[in-house]
Fold:
Amino acid sequence: MTEENRFIDRYRTGHTPWVHSNPDFNLLETVTQRPITPCKVFEPGCGLGVESVWLAEQGFEVTAMDVSELALEKAKASAGALASKINWLSMDITRDRLPKEAFGFIFDRGFFHTFDTSGERSLVAEKLASSLEENGLWLSLMGNGDGVPVRTGPPLRSASDIVLAVDPFFEILSLEVSVFGNEEANPHKIWRCLMKKRKL
Ligand SMILES: C[S@@+](CC[C@H](N)C(=O)[O-])C[C@H]1O[C@@H](n2cnc3c(N)ncnc32)[C@H](O)[C@@H]1O
Structure:
Protein backbone atom coordinates (compact mmCIF):
# COMPACT_ATOMS: atom_id res chain seq x y z
CA MET A 1 0.00 0.00 0.00
CA THR A 2 1.33 3.47 -0.85
CA GLU A 3 1.82 6.05 1.91
CA GLU A 4 -1.03 8.11 0.37
CA ASN A 5 -3.42 5.11 0.48
CA ARG A 6 -2.34 4.49 4.05
CA PHE A 7 -3.51 8.02 4.94
CA ILE A 8 -6.82 7.48 3.11
CA ASP A 9 -7.28 4.26 5.07
CA ARG A 10 -6.43 5.91 8.39
CA TYR A 11 -9.32 8.37 8.00
CA ARG A 12 -11.62 5.39 7.25
CA THR A 13 -10.51 3.44 10.33
CA GLY A 14 -10.26 6.50 12.58
CA HIS A 15 -6.54 6.02 13.35
CA THR A 16 -5.81 9.76 13.12
CA PRO A 17 -3.90 10.84 16.25
CA TRP A 18 -3.07 14.25 14.70
CA VAL A 19 -6.73 15.34 14.82
CA HIS A 20 -7.19 18.34 17.09
CA SER A 21 -10.01 20.74 17.86
CA ASN A 22 -8.46 24.20 18.04
CA PRO A 23 -6.25 26.03 15.53
CA ASP A 24 -2.56 25.47 16.29
CA PHE A 25 -1.01 28.31 18.31
CA ASN A 26 2.15 28.17 16.15
CA LEU A 27 0.11 29.40 13.18
CA LEU A 28 -1.74 32.02 15.23
CA GLU A 29 1.52 33.41 16.67
CA THR A 30 3.27 33.56 13.29
CA VAL A 31 0.33 35.21 11.52
CA THR A 32 -0.23 37.79 14.25
CA GLN A 33 3.39 38.51 15.23
CA ARG A 34 5.02 38.79 11.81
CA PRO A 35 2.27 39.82 10.79
CA ILE A 36 1.02 37.95 7.71
CA THR A 37 -1.87 39.93 6.32
CA PRO A 38 -4.82 38.28 4.51
CA CYS A 39 -3.84 36.98 1.08
CA LYS A 40 -4.27 33.82 -0.98
CA VAL A 41 -3.21 30.93 1.26
CA PHE A 42 -2.70 27.24 0.47
CA GLU A 43 -2.90 24.47 3.08
CA PRO A 44 -1.63 21.13 1.70
CA GLY A 45 -2.54 18.10 3.84
CA CYS A 46 -5.24 20.12 5.58
CA GLY A 47 -6.86 17.05 7.18
CA LEU A 48 -10.01 18.11 8.98
CA GLY A 49 -9.37 21.75 8.08
CA VAL A 50 -9.19 23.37 11.53
CA GLU A 51 -6.45 25.81 10.48
CA SER A 52 -7.97 26.47 7.03
CA VAL A 53 -11.20 27.52 8.72
CA TRP A 54 -9.30 29.81 11.12
CA LEU A 55 -7.46 31.40 8.18
CA ALA A 56 -10.77 31.96 6.34
CA GLU A 57 -12.18 33.58 9.48
CA GLN A 58 -9.21 35.99 9.45
CA GLY A 59 -10.05 37.03 5.87
CA PHE A 60 -7.55 34.86 3.96
CA GLU A 61 -8.64 33.40 0.61
CA VAL A 62 -8.09 29.71 1.39
CA THR A 63 -7.34 26.70 -0.80
CA ALA A 64 -7.34 23.56 1.36
CA MET A 65 -6.01 20.32 -0.12
CA ASP A 66 -5.79 16.70 0.99
CA VAL A 67 -5.38 13.27 -0.58
CA SER A 68 -8.23 11.94 1.58
CA GLU A 69 -11.70 12.77 0.24
CA LEU A 70 -13.19 11.61 3.52
CA ALA A 71 -11.05 14.12 5.44
CA LEU A 72 -12.21 16.88 3.09
CA GLU A 73 -15.87 15.88 3.50
CA LYS A 74 -15.51 16.04 7.28
CA ALA A 75 -13.63 19.34 7.03
CA LYS A 76 -16.39 20.88 4.91
CA ALA A 77 -19.06 19.65 7.34
CA SER A 78 -17.31 21.21 10.32
CA ALA A 79 -16.54 24.48 8.50
CA GLY A 80 -20.27 25.33 8.53
CA ALA A 81 -21.06 28.59 6.74
CA LEU A 82 -17.39 29.13 5.87
CA ALA A 83 -17.24 25.91 3.82
CA SER A 84 -18.45 27.67 0.68
CA LYS A 85 -15.72 30.33 1.01
CA ILE A 86 -12.91 27.73 0.99
CA ASN A 87 -11.63 26.08 -2.19
CA TRP A 88 -11.37 22.36 -1.27
CA LEU A 89 -9.07 20.24 -3.45
CA SER A 90 -8.67 16.49 -3.41
CA MET A 91 -5.25 15.61 -4.82
CA ASP A 92 -1.98 13.80 -4.28
CA ILE A 93 0.87 16.28 -4.31
CA THR A 94 3.37 13.68 -5.52
CA ARG A 95 1.32 12.89 -8.66
CA ASP A 96 -0.99 15.79 -9.44
CA ARG A 97 -0.35 19.34 -10.59
CA LEU A 98 -0.85 22.04 -8.01
CA PRO A 99 -3.32 24.85 -8.80
CA LYS A 100 -1.88 27.49 -11.12
CA GLU A 101 -2.65 30.24 -8.62
CA ALA A 102 0.15 32.30 -7.06
CA PHE A 103 -0.29 32.06 -3.31
CA GLY A 104 1.10 34.61 -0.87
CA PHE A 105 1.33 32.10 2.00
CA ILE A 106 1.50 28.32 2.44
CA PHE A 107 0.83 26.67 5.78
CA ASP A 108 1.26 23.01 6.59
CA ARG A 109 0.90 21.17 9.86
CA GLY A 110 2.36 17.69 9.81
CA PHE A 111 2.17 17.36 6.03
CA PHE A 112 5.71 18.01 4.74
CA HIS A 113 7.18 15.77 7.44
CA THR A 114 5.24 12.75 6.15
CA PHE A 115 7.59 12.37 3.15
CA ASP A 116 10.21 9.81 4.09
CA THR A 117 12.85 10.18 1.39
CA SER A 118 14.98 13.20 0.58
CA GLY A 119 13.88 12.87 -3.07
CA GLU A 120 10.19 13.19 -2.14
CA ARG A 121 10.87 16.11 0.21
CA SER A 122 12.80 17.96 -2.53
CA LEU A 123 10.01 17.35 -5.04
CA VAL A 124 7.35 18.62 -2.63
CA ALA A 125 9.45 21.68 -1.65
CA GLU A 126 9.96 22.52 -5.34
CA LYS A 127 6.24 22.14 -6.11
CA LEU A 128 5.26 24.32 -3.18
CA ALA A 129 7.80 27.00 -4.20
CA SER A 130 6.41 27.01 -7.72
CA SER A 131 2.92 27.75 -6.42
CA LEU A 132 4.04 30.80 -4.39
CA GLU A 133 4.28 34.35 -5.63
CA GLU A 134 7.59 36.22 -5.39
CA ASN A 135 8.61 36.61 -1.72
CA GLY A 136 5.76 34.24 -0.73
CA LEU A 137 6.05 32.60 2.70
CA TRP A 138 5.74 28.97 3.84
CA LEU A 139 5.23 28.00 7.48
CA SER A 140 5.74 24.30 8.13
CA LEU A 141 5.23 22.45 11.43
CA MET A 142 7.20 19.18 11.48
CA GLY A 143 8.01 16.43 13.97
CA ASN A 144 11.41 17.11 15.56
CA GLY A 145 13.92 14.22 15.68
CA ASP A 146 16.01 15.68 18.52
CA GLY A 147 15.42 14.58 22.09
CA VAL A 148 13.86 11.46 23.52
CA PRO A 149 13.08 8.86 20.84
CA VAL A 150 9.39 7.92 20.70
CA ARG A 151 8.03 4.63 19.37
CA THR A 152 4.74 6.09 18.26
CA GLY A 153 3.97 9.58 17.07
CA PRO A 154 4.67 11.83 14.12
CA PRO A 155 7.51 11.29 11.65
CA LEU A 156 10.63 12.90 13.11
CA ARG A 157 12.91 15.05 10.97
CA SER A 158 16.34 16.51 11.62
CA ALA A 159 17.26 20.12 10.89
CA SER A 160 19.56 18.87 8.13
CA ASP A 161 16.68 16.86 6.50
CA ILE A 162 14.71 20.10 6.30
CA VAL A 163 17.56 22.33 5.10
CA LEU A 164 18.64 19.83 2.44
CA ALA A 165 15.13 19.72 0.93
CA VAL A 166 14.09 23.36 1.15
CA ASP A 167 17.30 25.37 0.79
CA PRO A 168 17.45 25.30 -3.05
CA PHE A 169 13.99 26.88 -3.24
CA PHE A 170 13.53 28.79 0.03
CA GLU A 171 15.43 31.14 2.29
CA ILE A 172 14.92 29.94 5.87
CA LEU A 173 13.78 32.94 7.94
CA SER A 174 13.51 31.00 11.20
CA LEU A 175 13.83 27.40 12.37
CA GLU A 176 12.64 27.12 15.94
CA VAL A 177 11.88 24.34 18.40
CA SER A 178 8.25 24.26 19.52
CA VAL A 179 5.49 21.74 20.27
CA PHE A 180 2.32 20.90 18.36
CA GLY A 181 -0.61 23.02 19.46
CA ASN A 182 -3.26 20.49 20.45
CA GLU A 183 -5.29 19.30 23.41
CA GLU A 184 -2.65 16.77 24.63
CA ALA A 185 -0.96 17.07 28.02
CA ASN A 186 2.49 16.42 26.51
CA PRO A 187 2.42 17.48 22.87
CA HIS A 188 5.20 16.28 20.57
CA LYS A 189 8.25 18.45 20.00
CA ILE A 190 8.31 20.04 16.55
CA TRP A 191 10.24 22.25 14.21
CA ARG A 192 8.47 25.47 13.34
CA CYS A 193 10.06 26.65 10.12
CA LEU A 194 9.23 29.90 8.35
CA MET A 195 10.59 30.22 4.83
CA LYS A 196 10.56 32.74 2.00
CA LYS A 197 10.58 31.71 -1.65
CA ARG A 198 13.94 32.37 -3.29
CA LYS A 199 14.20 34.38 -6.46
CA LEU A 200 15.16 31.69 -8.96
C1 LIG B 1 -0.36 14.08 9.86
S1 LIG B 1 -1.77 14.49 8.89
C2 LIG B 1 -2.01 16.22 9.31
C3 LIG B 1 -3.40 16.72 8.98
C4 LIG B 1 -3.69 18.17 9.43
N1 LIG B 1 -2.78 19.12 8.80
C5 LIG B 1 -3.62 18.27 10.92
O1 LIG B 1 -2.65 18.82 11.44
O2 LIG B 1 -4.57 17.79 11.57
C6 LIG B 1 -1.07 14.61 7.22
C7 LIG B 1 -2.12 14.91 6.17
O3 LIG B 1 -1.50 14.98 4.89
C8 LIG B 1 -2.31 14.27 3.95
N2 LIG B 1 -1.40 13.76 2.90
C9 LIG B 1 -0.42 12.84 3.05
N3 LIG B 1 0.21 12.63 1.88
C10 LIG B 1 -0.40 13.44 0.96
C11 LIG B 1 -0.19 13.66 -0.43
N4 LIG B 1 0.74 13.00 -1.11
N5 LIG B 1 -0.96 14.59 -1.05
C12 LIG B 1 -1.92 15.27 -0.35
N6 LIG B 1 -2.17 15.08 0.96
C13 LIG B 1 -1.42 14.17 1.62
C14 LIG B 1 -2.98 13.16 4.76
O4 LIG B 1 -4.15 12.66 4.17
C15 LIG B 1 -3.22 13.86 6.10
O5 LIG B 1 -4.47 14.51 6.14
Summary: The chain has one domain: 3-197. The mean pLDDT is 95. The longest strand covers residues 132-143.
